[in-house]
Automatic annotation (TrEMBL), chains A, B:
This is Glycolate oxidase subunit GlcD. SUPFAM superfamilies: FAD-binding/transporter-associated domain-like, FAD-linked oxidases, C-terminal domain. It comes from Woeseia oceani. The keyword Oxidoreductase applies. It comes from the Bacteria.
Length: 486, 486
């Protein structure tokens, strides 16, 4: 234990002593330096130091931890790989942080049932790697898939560039073992399509750690598509590109992925990874189709012709898997690419109806000018999930605040046009106040009823995901006073 | 009002008078004869007469009804088309039955967003009919799709022969407007893939009317597949057919539907509709593939060769859509076909892992012999959802009871091999006691917590879906005394 631990108060050490009855010493992190890596997730504008970090290795240990926390009324925040973008894994400074990183076993890959049984700390990509020998893979592929854990994917109901065709986490997780807020172990969902009783599996997915802690997961595996190609097209306006997106969908094609980047994002990505993007384009579409080879080629031809009809200024089709990977590389690197050209960036996540793409991008451009902050737009266009990256410099007084305010305006815009304040990154701490833009009192009351029912002591990830009544009052009084401060 | 109404007690008429403040006289059914059609759903072994039947025409009227019932603590049972098979719409004799039949408007078909917005009383097939002009359709297709309503589909999370590829109702309903147990109107889900907050949309789907009443629905529409074929193969044993099912899935093919019928079901269907089934086969597989023509033909060839490899004694491929429809006609008529050869039949609904198909069918055969009751097996084989039809004669003393007991043994068998007591028909009243075979106390406690949270007065469809604590005690004491009576 290093020097900084000496500053811990007696309460913290007494708490650690209680956990020593349940865990080995090396599973309990007390000193500040060792706790530091856990003080934030991938949205580091929010930081907090937990009393303790606990690193259980079994379901039983997770259960024992939660039971003790329930007894002591100590908040519990579960953490996967810490790649979340809405501060969902932000520690509670009066609670313990439970890292699920050591529950990282792939228990079983069953090629016949096309199911993998894994622990929550398993990395998203590791599932597909384990299934590869059977020609199978796990479909949801968040940009962070090399690092992010399936448990975190469940907490946020993560998507990825292929969710247009293959769905979000909720569509690919069949069942789970859960430790409840009161420390019971139960199974939700199952190995089949449906089960009796309420759909607790879906209820827990995307609930951001507020209803229980996942300790085992059954995921659906899919056969790897025989063939896949990407059509990449440049456009001289986002409006044209937006119309082209609608045209592809209206033509009855379900692309495996359909992504859009604006001029700013194209240049940033191209500077970073040389994906061969048309630098002069104002908008880029990447449209992947997969399946049987003939079908893919037929669809590629159709998509090319639609793109040209809607004003594509350039159009290329990936010739092989290496080129396909290269086309995607730029898109997947869009966030770090923004990081190279701006000291800080703030990634938003909202959804809008597909047909509103052009109009919303124009409105975002106006907001960008109004706030004097550049915005780089990358976009799951096929399912209307936008990710504006607001570029700012936190060392310039007021810029962080302006970025946050601008982000809020974008989310309110999403709700106004019939969309949602989050597509796949979750609400976490970041978007709590915008929940009021999306949900009315009756809807919020239902959320609170569910939370109270499943976590009566309110110990699981308190203050995240769903604004509490107190938070609602606070946000409303700020709004009423004309401010949009957070 | 006819003579029978005179036997109504004053309380009932007083209740009717209260509803007269909310509804026109012709929307309130008081007399017994007019209420008769509502006394059961498609599982007529359970019957009850409600105090009143109410026929609202708008969301506001549904809201007003629920508010009054909440005030008076009167049970409310919502009913769609009454095609349910687990007595989920059985009236409460101390409550009102709310028929949603007149909320039957298709409000909007949006081909661009591929969404239809409909009222709950709209028939399943009517959605596809309305979307046809845009080349779109609604995928879930329960056998009763001509008659069943989308509201009822939501209550039971219905599937159909194509759910292997296209999913159940929960995978195809994006959002809903709900009237809560306290009479609030709220929206769950949305028009996009995901929304913020807990996934109440999924929670409500399959909740059998216990958590709220649906008054509007957004369903996902899919482009109609370009091409589809059915491979029909006879086998001389259910074991071989079961192995062939696993082989198709293991080959990386995702059929649009993969159905199995045993010898008894084949003959009954063939006698009824002349679908061209091989009468001497002990098992029949119907495997549909859809998509691009080349892909379909490639898969058809692969499936034929796998079927022959696993011992198919006959194999035919549909030549055109008319023949494809004919092949399906026998399968879809399997239930009425059983009705022609037996005075009564009892349709079970359980799921099992695919690889257990052969073993479970053999065990069902043994149970059939043990109970002296014939069983006809039809089966969504691809997703392991079995529908044994137990044939009996209710006029023979003891046969109904024996059929129910035999049905229970089959469900327990499903749970033992890792399956579920319902695949798509719901629990209703019928399977309440078997919930104890599937869920432990902690799991049942979570269900109760959810119910109490969303319906604190317990007025919505009481006594269905989830066994209450009292019912649990009752079932356990019966089990403890060695009986299996219901």
């Amino acid at each position: 234990m290093n020097a900084s631990a000496k500053t811990d108060d007696g309460g913290k050490l007494a708490l650690a002593a209680r956990f020593r009855e349940l865990l080995r010493a090396d599973q309990i992190i007390v000193d500040a330096e060792s706790k530091r890596p856990y003080e934030c997730d991938a949205l580091p504008v929010y930081k907090a130091m937990p009393l303790l970090v606990l690193v259980p290795e079994t379901t039983r240990q997770v259960q024992a931890i939660v039971r003790l926390c329930y007894e002591l009324k100590v908040p519990v925040v579960a953490r996967g790989a810490g790649t979340g973008l809405s501060a969902g894994a932000l520690p509670d400074s009066n609670g313990v942080l439970v890292s699920l990183a050591r529950l990282s076993r792939i228990i079983e890959v069953d090629p016949d049932a096309r199911i993998a049984r894994v622990q929550p700390g398993v990395r998203n990509l590791a599932i597909s790697e384990a299934a590869e020998e059977f020609g199978l893979y796990y479909a949801p592929d968040p940009s962070s898939q090399i690092a992010c854990s399936i448990g975190g994917n469940i907490a946020e109901n993560s998507g990825g560039v292929h969710c247009l065709k293959y769905g979000l986490t909720v569509h690919n997780v069949l069942g789970m073992e859960i430790v409840t807020a009161e420390g019971e172990i139960l199974q939700v969902g199952g190995r089949g399509l449906d089960t009796a009783g309420y759909d607790l599996n879906a209820l827990f997915i995307g609930s951001e750690g507020l209803l229980g802690i996942v300790t085992e997961v059954w995921v659906k595996l899919l056969p790897k598509p025989e063939h896949a190609r990407v059509v990449m097209a440049g456009f001289d306006s986002v409006l044209n590109a937006g119309d082209a997106v609608s045209a592809v969908i209206a033509a009855g094609i379900i692309p495996a992925g359909l992504e859009m980047m604006d001029g700013f994002a194209i240049q940033a990505a191209e500077d970073f990874v040389n994906a061969g993007y048309p630098r002069d384009a104002r908008a880029l579409l990447l449209c992947e189709v997969d399946g049987n080879e003939d079908e893919v080629l037929e669809h590629v031809e159709r998509i090319e012709s639609l793109f040209r009809e809607f004003g594509a200024t350039s159009c290329r089709v990936s010739r092989d898997d290496a080129e396909r990977a290269l086309f995607w590389k730029g898109r997947k690197a869009a966030f770090p690419a923004a990081g190279r050209i701006s000291p800080d960036y703030y990634c938003m996540d909202g959804t809008i109806p597909r047909r509103k793409i052009g109009a919303v991008l124009e409105a975002i451009q106006q907001l960008s000018e109004q706030y004097g902050l550049r915005i780089s737009n990358v976009f799951h266009a096929g399912d209307g999930n936008l990710h504006p990256l607001i570029l700012f410099d936190a060392s310039v007084p007021g810029e962080l605040h302006a970025a946050e305010e601008l982000g809020g305006k974008i989310l309110e815009l999403c709700v106004q046009v019939g969309g949602s304040i989050t597509g796949e990154h979750g609400v976490g701490v970041e978007k709590l106040r915008y929940m009021l833009a999306q949900f009315n009192d009756a809807e919020l009351a239902q959320f609170h009823a569910i939370k109270d029912a499943l976590d009566p002591a309110g110990i699981l990830n308190p203050g995240k995901g769903i604004p509490t009544l107190r938070q609602c009052q606070e946000y409303r009084s700020i709004d009423a006073s004309g401010g949009a401060k957070r």
